[in-house]
Amino acid sequence: MSYTTFIARRQLRSRQRHGFLSLITLISILGIIVGTAVLVFALAIMRGFETEVKQRIVGTTAHVSVFHRFDDGIVDWQPIRDRLASMDEVEAVAPFVYYKAAISSGDANDGVIVRGIIPDREVEVTRLRESVLGGNWHMDSDDPDDHPILLGSTLANRLNVVGGDEVVLYSLRGEALAEGAPPRIMKFVVADLFETGMYEYDAALCYITLADAQRLFLLPDRISGFQLKVSDWNRANTVAERIEGTLDPDLYATDWMRMHRNLFGWMEIERRWAIVALSLIIAVAAFNIISTLIMVVMDKRREIAVLKTMGAPSRGIRAIFMWQGSLIGITGTTIGLILGLGMCWVQKTFSLVSLPAEIYFIDSLPVIVDVRDVAIVGVVALVISFLATIYPAGRAARLYPVHILRYE
Predict the structure, then answer these.
(1) Which residues sit opposite 227 in a β-bridge?
(2) Distance separating alpha carbons of residues 234 and 129, to the nearest angstrom
(3) What is the pTM of this model?
């Protein structure tokens, strides 16, 4: 161990001649502990919410979707489906019809997005089976003449309908509005309700059979596109690009991240600024390090003079105080990381912080610890602590022994 490290450690452990200096040192360490722990816990919460949102989106939207560039729909789609299903990393393919319509019940009217599906194929690419509340995801009906429909729970509440009630869909697709053409009307029976936990889906989405959607939107033997499930949903963008390269020019492929890039872009910006904002807590503690070291330099001027008289170079004096400040940062950062990870473990294990399930559709604060986030927090705290030592250490190194010993 070098003499600079030895003196720095001894100086940090020893009681100062003025108890106030020890108190300031303790406050500096506590400040770094609090800032580091809060930053780790906050980033884990943000990562948890982001993962929760991703899972809910992927549960309702397939990993990759293939669309027609125009409104005409895809004709002769069965060979395309078979070709997509044979591609590498593609596990399942489901055709769908997707369009907007109006919906009404006996009590209310609303706009709605209609998705026409083949239920047995849809559950292979999304989590429709898990989100249907009553389990009737296959849309069975006692009357073969009924047209079944699945409604989002929020939409059903707005329309004041439950399973077995009737609703009416109105479509204007393909009609010349300028000529006053009436909308096409189809009556449906609510087979069940679904709840994804995403308001935009639960409040504005419904499912009907593919055949009923083709009839309602004047798409005989046509579909809007395909939904694909791939082996790794994090590679969906790569798979989509490869698929698009094999499709006809009138078709294009997009992945779930691109379809919701505004949402995930906002989350990424929020996480970055959270790191900046919460790092200010550590910066405040760093100012305490600066003030502590400056006061130590003023209090230890005679000792500094003696060391220089004995031959210690200026860089050695500088190293002593930089080591002392760095040890404060290392101690605070280490304890803060352990405390932050401990808070995450407690929340994940015991769910101490609960959330109103009727608003968030989850009953506790989600926490996911990412090693990269922990590493970033540790590096930020150590760098800020180290930078805080530069000025006081430089001031100590510039002291002249002859001036100190002459006037003291």
Answers:
(1) 65, 94
(2) 22
(3) 0.74
Backbone angles phi, psi at 356, to 5 degrees: -70, 110
Long-range Cβ contact pairs of 269-275 (< 8 A, separation 24 or more): 270/46, 271/43, 271/46, 271/47, 271/50, 274/42, 274/43, 274/46, 275/39, 275/43, 275/376, 275/377, 275/380
Q: What is the DSSP string of 59-72?
A: HHS-SEEEEESSSS
What is the DSSP code string of 296-335?
Answer: HHHHTHHHHHHHHHTT--HHHHHHHHHHHHHHHHHHHHHH
Task: Please give the single-letter amino acid code of residue 213.
Answer: A
- Other C-beta atoms within 10 Å of 331: how many? 17
408 neighbors 299 (Cβ within 8 angstroms): no
Q: Torsion over CA of 369, 55, 267 and 62, rounded to 10 degrees?
A: 140
Domain definitions of the chain by residue range: 3-57+263-407, 63-258
H or E segment at 292? helix 261-299
Q: Are 108 and 159 in contact (CB under 8 A)?
A: yes
Residues 101-132: pLDDT tens digits? 999 998 899 999 999 999 999 999 999 999 99
pLDDT in tens, 138-147: 998 777 778 9
Q: Phi first, then psi: give them for residue 94, nearest 5 degrees.
A: -135, 125
Cβ distance 206 to 114 under 8 Å? yes
